[in-house]
Structure of Zn(2)-C6 fungal-type domain-containing protein:
Amino acid sequence: MASEPSKSSATVAQDPQGQPHPIAPYPPQFAGAHYPPLPPGAYPPYYAYAPIPTDGSHDPSAPNGVPPGGPYLMAFPPPPPGMVYAYAPPPGQLPGYPPFAPGLQTPVVLPRPKRKQVKMACTNCASACKRCDDARPCERCQKYGIADSCVDGIRKERKKGIKRGPYKRKNKVSGGEATFSSNQTSESSETTIQPMSYPAPPEGYYPYYYPHPGFVPVTAEGQANGDTPTANGNAHPPVPPHPSFYSMHPAVFPPYPPYAHAGPVAFAPPPMMQLQPPPSTQDQHQHSPSHAKSTEPATNGNVEENGDSSGMSPSKNGKKKRRASKGDENGHPTSSSSKGKKTKNGTSEGVNGTTNGVDGQRPG
DNA sequence: AGATTCGGATGGTAAAGCGT
DNA sequence: CGCTTTACCATCCGAATCTA
Ligand SMILES: [Zn+2]
Ligand SMILES: [Zn+2]
C-alpha cells in the first residue's frame, strides 16, 4: 500500500518536535490551488483520505494519488495531546476503543481544492479526454510516441448575442469561512457560510481519535499505524490498521505537544482509500453538455438553445451506466482520427427567448 | 493489465446584465 | 464602465469496455 503508482515521492520533513513527517506532494491537478482559510482555532489543513473500504471496492491504483472524489480538505479543532484524528470502526464493533471525544463527531469539511486545467490541451489529449500539459509535445503524446502530432486545437468562438433575461443578484458574502458547528452559537442568518458538518462517514466509520503515530513504534511490516495505545503502559486490544490523516501541506505543521513516547518514527505513506460522495451541501451542479469534440469551425448563425436544468446527477460514486456497444470511429491519438461522433441534443428551452444554459445553475 | 472509450463533473472565462 | 452573473464550451476524471 504504501506506494503510489509512480508519481509522487513523499518527502520527509520534521515537525517542531523533531519528529519526521511524510509529506506527500499535492496531486498534480491541485498544484497551485488555493485553499480556504481555516476557521478560528482550527487545526491546520489536512488532506483526509477516507478509510479503505472493506467491501472489496478499494482501488489502490487511483490516478494521481487521489482517491475517487477526494481528497477532501478538512479542518479540525486541536486534538488532545498525543492524539490525531482518524476514522475507526464504530464503537462496539471493536472492543476496547476509547470513547469519542466530545464535540468532535462532526468535523468540518472544507471544499477541496480545485482541479487545474491547462489552458489548451493538445488535440490528441483532447480527443482522448486525457490530461495534457503545457509542453509541446506534451507528456502524454511523448509517452505514446505521437509527439509529432501534438498540436494545439482550435477553440470554438463563443456564441454571442444570447439573451439571458434578468439576473438574480446574489448576496455578497465577505470572508466566507467555515466554522465548527459545535463551536458556533450565533446563527447569523444568511450572511455567513454555514459549516458543512461531515455527513455520514464512510460506511461503517466514524470520526475518531487515535494516538499520534509517534506514540508507538512501527510494526514489523512497516505499518506505522500508531495503534495500540500505550499512554499508561496498558495496551488496548490490538487495533487493525487504520488510516490517519497525513499532512500534505509542506508549510504547516500542527503544534504537536510532547509525547510520552516521543521519538523518531517512520510513518507509512497514506494508504489509498476511497472516499464517499462529497457532502451534498457542498456543491450542487450539474449539467450535461456533450463534449462535442468536433473541431468544427465556429458557426454562429442560428444556434439551438439547449436546456438542461434539472436533476442533480449521481455523484462519482454512483455507478455509471454505459451503452451496450459502441460504434467504430473514435478519435484516439494512436489512430489519429478526429472524433466528432457524440451528438449533442438540443433541448430547446428558455423563457421568452432566453437561454437556459447547458450548465444549469451552479453554486456560487 | 494496459489501452481505449466516453459520460459527465469541473474549470475557465467571454458575454450579458446591471448599478452608477 | 466596472462589477456581477450567466452560461458556453473546454478540460479531463474515472468507470466501463476493449484488447493483447
Ligand atoms: Zn496533450
Ligand atoms: Zn500532446
Observations:
- Helices of chain A lie at 123-128, 139-143.
- The radius of gyration of chain A is 24 Å.
- The CA atoms of residues 63 and 302 of chain A lie 41 Å apart.
- The first strand of chain A starts at residue 11 and ends at 14.
